[in-house]
Amino acid sequence: MTDQGNAEQTGELTDGVVQLRFADEGGTLRSVNAHEVAEVLQGLVEFTSDMAKRGLFGDGVPPEVRVRPVKEGSFILEVEAIVNWALQNPSDAIGAAGGVLSAGGAVVKGINVGLKKLRGTTVTDMTDLDNGNVKINWADGDVQEIPRAAWEQLNEMPKKTRRSLRKILAPLSDQADTLELRDASVEASTEDVMKAVPSAIATRAEYREAVIEPDDSTEETETFTAEATLESIDFRPGQKWRVKTSERSLLATIEDDEFLHGLDQGQPLHKNDIFEVTILENRTTVDGRTSRTWTVVKARRTKRGTDDRADVASQPPAA
After folding, report:
1. 120 to each of 65, 123, 140, 212, 281, how far by Cα in Å?
2. pTM of the complete model
3. Residues 52, 84: one domain?
4. Rounded CA separation 126/116 (Å)
5. What is the tens place of the pLDDT at every residue in 155-199?
6. H helix or E strand, kind and range, residue 147
7. Which of 116, 178, 207, 300 is least crowded, fewest Cβ atoms below 10 Å from its Cβ?
8. How many domains does the chain have?
9. How many helices (H) and strands (E) does the chain have?
């Protein structure tokens, strides 16, 4: 265990306790599903380990998470965040500017940032600090300091971060209405910790938001020029033509008005005509699978084919 008095002089990260109090509307909740308790602990371990990699506790390995003996009364979990190293640069860790940093306090502050992101609280201002942290001003009036890497992870809210928060909030799915998070020194009693104002409060609304796992998707747009042939043509309004390049064949929307006007005026198309085309490609990737749409914004014939096309999908409508 880290000595508190010595830590104040050396700048070490001190041990700390995270208290999670689940309660119903009447404040009389006495039990929680054992499976959900297991999820809470698993979520805390996952969240703490992930945030440790992103500098929430400064340099070093993730803290060891242990559970204190359960006390009588409302259902309370008290988790000791036992940190087994001293930070060489304690100011690089979250909240260390005020002096001795409690590992429990770092965990609670990290979870609190995650809760704000789940409930959609907006950031009104953000400042990069010299110590590598970012200072965040929230629309609800709260001001927090957090390592940049940890902020980027929580701001992006990838699936694994969302899942660890969902596990921590698991009892809010049915039995509990609120979760109060407090932090304190290891020496503090349960009664003393409960007297403090909660550092963060979660409700079922945050749990429901954490359950939603949006698809991992990206969208990209690229414009490129290539040689192509027209494999199928359809003059009906809104219909797509099949365009084949050396890379692939895809249905495309034709938006070159000059090219289309020339066809309306009787410009012939021949089998195996070669065109220089400028294509706007939109790519959407969802869960590793990519779909493409093409729009031909410019088409210019560079080589005439062998004969008039006889395989046009649809001729222009008669006047």
Report:
1. 29, 9, 11, 14, 33
2. 0.59
3. yes
4. 15
5. 888 888 999 999 999 999 988 899 999 888 777 787 888 888 999
6. strand 143-147
7. 300
8. 2
9. 8, 15
